[in-house]
Amino acid sequence: MAKTLKPGEKPTATLSPWTLQGSQLIALDTETTGLDPAIHEIFQIAIVPLDYNFLPREDVSPFVMSMRIESPETVDYAAMKKIGVSREKLQLHTSMGIDQMTGVDIMLEWIETLKLPPMRRMCPIAQNWPHDRQFLLAWLGKELFDTLFHPQYRDLIPAAQLINDLNYTVGSNVPFREANLSALCRHFEIERAVKHDALNDAVATAEIYRRMLSKYCGGFNKFN
Length: 224
Description:
Helix content is about 40%, strand content about 15%. It has helices spanning about 75-85, 85-90, 100-110, 130-140, 140-150, 155-170, 180-190, 200-215, and strands at about 5, 15, 25-30, 40-50, 65, 120-125, 155. The strands form two sheets. The chain has a five-stranded mixed sheet with strand order 5-4-3-6-7.
């Protein structure tokens, strides 16, 4: 169970940062059929539970699910090609995968394995959370979304912008010229086995955030 890490308390592998008050920090990534949640859909999702040190929890398996594209006529192949998602990958998901409604039930069953305290939720770290959030809202509905996800999210894009601003104000060179996932992986020398794969991208997102904290914010000195 993800307990609360209070100020001054010795951390263990399953304690979450005390600021979350028992909610579970996660890294999340979705793969979608386009950029408009009104007509496009999620076809792959990954959720990686993290421990107090922003590392994947060893006692809980990540959630990874591929879903069938139920409206293949709406797939925006041009937009997806521009960001690196191949036509072949999208076409594969039009004929295989779990249906969207069953996918909700499967995810809820997995969330039970987190053994969250009452009224506690998942707190996401993402790369472009506003994009993921809108697609999750369209898939889950607002009531269920609000039940599952904590509003105090983390996002690599504003995190990179904040670090740039902090460096700028003291006259240092800004470290990030771009804040897309590929650019951030290059900056921190993180290799992804497969690009635009939800699990690989979620794991990379968590590691980038961890390294941002460690390198630019002086984090983890008392834990490592």
